[in-house]
């Protein structure tokens, strides 16, 4: 298993090169119930195996968002990985991580999959928009400004104390 890195998890360098995608496919084959769980089913009442698979899926989604691996994001969400759940060990949310790292393609993709831009991080209380602001950014880059441009219209008052806009109002349907 060449993808096992630190603490038994996939290394970030393995994302997008087929290794993690293969691991996701193996997980699906081993735990077929994961693909049929309804939203919210990763909470109490599911088997320990299914819960573990979903925890790993959430962690993989955070890594994929951080490294802008769009195909991996799509695959994980397609098998039922919740887009608005934090990684159980690190408390990282996919959209927040992508915003803090200046990953505009990941931000767009996660939003298209229903990520909530008004959700506050339980650890630091920040929204994704607040994560991409100077002082909160990880490795400051011009891409953070693009992330800001994507997220700012989805909030009413900007970076402090904003309230979410009615989700129907921002759907381009």
List the defining traits of the structure above.
globular, 173 residues, Serine Threonine Protein Phosphatase 5, Tetratricopeptide repeat
What is the architecture at the second tier of CATH? Answer: Alpha Horseshoe
Shape: globular
CATH fold label: Serine Threonine Protein Phosphatase 5, Tetratricopeptide repeat
Which class in CATH terms? Mainly Alpha
Span between termini: 44 Å
Write the element-wise H/E pattern from the N-terminal end onward. HHHHHHHH
Radius of gyration, whole Å: 16 Å
Classify the secondary structure makeup into a structural class: mainly alpha
Sheet with the most strands?
Answer: none
- Strand percentage: under 5%
Low-confidence stretches: 1-17, 31-42, 157-173
Overall pLDDT metric: 74
Total beta-strand segments: 0
Number of domains: 1
CATH superfamily: Ankyrin repeat-containing domain
Please tally the helical runs, counting DSSP H or I stretches of 4 or more residues: 8
Helix content: 40-55%
Kindly describe this structure.
- By secondary structure, this protein is mainly alpha-helical.
- It has a single domain, classed as Ankyrin repeat-containing domain (Serine Threonine Protein Phosphatase 5, Tetratricopeptide repeat, Alpha Horseshoe), CATH 1.25.40.
- Helices cover 43% and strands 0% of the residues.
- The chain has eight helices and no strands.
- Helix 2 packs antiparallel against helix 3, helix 2 runs parallel beside helix 4 and helix 4 runs antiparallel to helix 5.
- The longest helix has 19 residues.
- The protein is globular and about 40 Å long.
- The N terminus and C terminus are likely disordered.
